[in-house]
Amino acid sequence: MDTPRSNFLKTQIQADLDAGRSDCVVTRFPPEPNGFLHIGHAKSISVNFGLAAEFGGQCHLRFDDTNPEKENQIFIDAIQEDLRWLGYEWHGEVRFASSYFEQLYQWALVLIDAGNAYVCDLDAEEARAYRGTLTEPGKDSPYRGRTTAENRDLFQRMRAGEFADGACVLRAKIDMASPNINLRDPILYRVRHATHHQTGDDWPIYPTYDFAHGQEDAIEGITHSICTLEFEDHRPLYDWLIEHLPVPHRPRQIEFARLNTSYTVTSKRKLKLLVDSGTVDGWDDPRMPTVAGMRRRGYPPAAIRHFCEEVGTSRSDGMVDMAMLEHAVRGHLNETAPRAFCVLRPLKVVLTNVDETSVLRIANHPSDESLGHREVPFGPELWIDSDDFRESANKKYKRLVIGKRVRLRGAYVIEADRCDTDKAGTVTTVYCRVIENTLGEDPGDGVKPKGVIHWVASHGAATAELRLYDRLFNDANPGRAEELLSVVNTDSLATIVDAVIEESLTNAEPEQVFQFEREGYFVADRHAHSNATPVFNLTIGLRDTWGGGNG
User: Fold this and answer.
1) What are the tens digits of pLDDT across the range 66-84?
2) Annotated catalytic residue, options 32, 81, 150, 465
3) pTM of the predicted protein model
4) Among 65, 99, 293, 307, which residue has the fewest nearby CB atoms (within 10 Å)?
């Protein structure tokens, strides 16, 4: 498996190893099971799993499931599937924060007994007023002076389910005047009568992420807790809790800049808005930046990993151009995707000097012989793309024109003689002649074809639905828009229901990617594609044409 480029995280981990602070690197990927993984998670995954692999260590998968109302088994299953699809395997069994609920509860009692935590009855609005601001210190809660015995009794009654949601919380007793708001007596436990997907109704109280996270790391022996920069201000609390509890191990938290890509949002709230509003067709819509969406779009996992590595890891926030990911996808598929013919806008061609059908042997890749060859039917009637024919054109037009020659990809040179049109003047049929002795070589009369076009023989064709996907947003930074839906690209999906494909493509496996020659890279939809109803999604165009459509 590939490993990330050199970065400051490697330097710090190596320093810890050299100093004897660690002897085996143990990292973790700790998603909350309340949504689908996205491109930002892919970066975090590549960092945590990559570092563990490079230093010969372990990476754990742990679900931080401390918020039961928003969590679901669907997300747990999807996250595991996405990780494996990306090419990663975690060490040992899948871990859950909920497995440690009893230990976390006992440690909360340790804080209470040491005078480092108290039960507070302030409601949410009152707590905000007492908390202070970035420029003004907070004020002590009137319940901060409760005795140890009183706090222990109240917390045990919270555990017993005697209090309603929101009636009280357990808070750490640190410093209400701290310049770091995260240290102003943060909440450690809330009353929450909610059924948990792992523990059922066993717990009427749940730990906060800030309280649980560091202790989970300590229980699992995590040496390096790699987080994104938004957790930097939380690190003093992370360390305070570790110092004030009898944990079996002391992990080290290090932060790096999260991945932000242009024309993308990764906020779960905003992604959910796209789904709930019907702007996209679910979390795995190919326009979504979710791992499931990129998979359905036909993005190869190797290209996603390569992109995450090329981006690098730093301490500086910035915006990465989405074209960089698209370049990685295009480069990978150029080398690995077999070629095939598909006509998006069919126009009939009659070859007036061809009487019989035949079969041509065409390479599946121009430079990789290991991808083999395929047999392609050829006959007197073909389909070409309507954009590849004009009755007359200037010299810059390199396709089929009356009186001019063009090569059929992998087949013969043909010359157009005339065409039929309907009452509206639309061309319906083009009549051409095959130039003899031109299979695989230029004509011997010195008149070379002007260009090359793709085609599909009528008797060896099938109809397919093509879904042409483009970027979901017109704005490079849609997250800043006051109304997210106002910057949605209304042309992000176009559907063609009567495209003509090689009949062999009906046997394509779901998720198999092809280069439809001269059109782009297409993937057989993992859900909708079948032999009876072929459905292909546009993965990416043959070149970067953003600004005029991608593909």
Assistant:
1) 999 999 999 999 999 999 9
2) 32
3) 0.92
4) 99
